Amino acid sequence: MEIEAGPGAAIEPAAADELARGSHLLAAIVQDEPRLVTGPMDGAMQQWTPIGRSAYTGEPPTKRSFVTPHADQSAAIKPADAGMYTSTACVGEVSMWRALLGPGGSAVRPLPRYTWNLTHSLPVRVAEITSASRWAEFVCAHPRYVGGVIYPDWVSVSRSCDAIHITLPTIAAAQGFALTTPDGAIAPAFWDVETTFWVRWRVSAAQLVEGPRR
């Protein structure tokens, strides 16, 4: 994005959404996988494919290892030290996140891959983020100001919902851009793929669907 639009490129959320509405790719995806575009999150099709330590030990997700967002964590659009990220299994029962990881490995993302189908205890409160405008409203409802830039206050978010579901139109509209709002500029987001970010532990069962079985 810095190469194409320059560092710190900013756009109004409504303008970003208008550009994304012209996407032929999104129009094609919604025909087969509407959950990825319009939501709602499919609670029966959430997959967890971790990177880092869990990726090469094959440890299932557990409540003991889950970290709820806390006041001491650094401001971030996508916290690395709290919560859990899942993605919806779609064509071929593969999620966009798993497809993005690809078949190879690296020092940061080692092989083998372990993918788990998750079952969640109900009810689950999910904030559906279906556009750049909705993302801006959501962040401004839970603001954390750092250096004149707005980040989500994930502690505040965890008090109001269990997870947020980032759909493809949001990514198409807002990826890499600072969103301008009356309250200030929201830090650029790089969600990359359709994602559910869990801020509270709601997993009731995990089934291994990829990886060496013990």
Shape: globular
Share in β-strands: 15-25%
Structural category: alpha+beta
Distance between the termini: 42 Å
Largest sheet: 7 strands, mixed
Strand line-up across the major sheet: 5-8-11-3-2-4-12
Which runs of at least 5 residues are low in confidence (pLDDT < 50)?
A: none
- The helix fraction, in percent, is 25-40%
Number of helices: 9
C-alpha Rg (nearest Å):
17 Å
Question: What oligomeric state is this?
Answer: single chain
Q: Mean of the pLDDT scores?
A: 90
Domain count = 1
The strand count comes to 12
Order of H and E elements: HEHHHEHEHEEHEEHEHEEEE
Q: Describe it for me?
A:
The chain is an alpha+beta fold. The chain has one domain (7-210). Helices cover 28% and strands 24% of the residues. The chain has nine helices and twelve strands. The chain has helices at residues 2-5, 13-20, 24-32, 34-37, 53-57, 96-101, 132-141, 154-160, 168-174, and strands at 10-11, 46-48, 84-88, 115-120, 126-129, 143-146, 149-152, 163-166, 178-181, 184-186, 195-198, 203-210. A seven-stranded mixed sheet has the order 5-8-11-3-2-4-12. Strands 1-9-10-7-6 form a five-stranded mixed sheet. A hairpin with a 2-residue loop joins strand 6 (143-146) and strand 7 (149-152). Helix 2 runs antiparallel to helix 7 (132-141), helix 2 crosses helix 9 (168-174) and helix 7 (132-141) crosses helix 9. The termini are far apart.
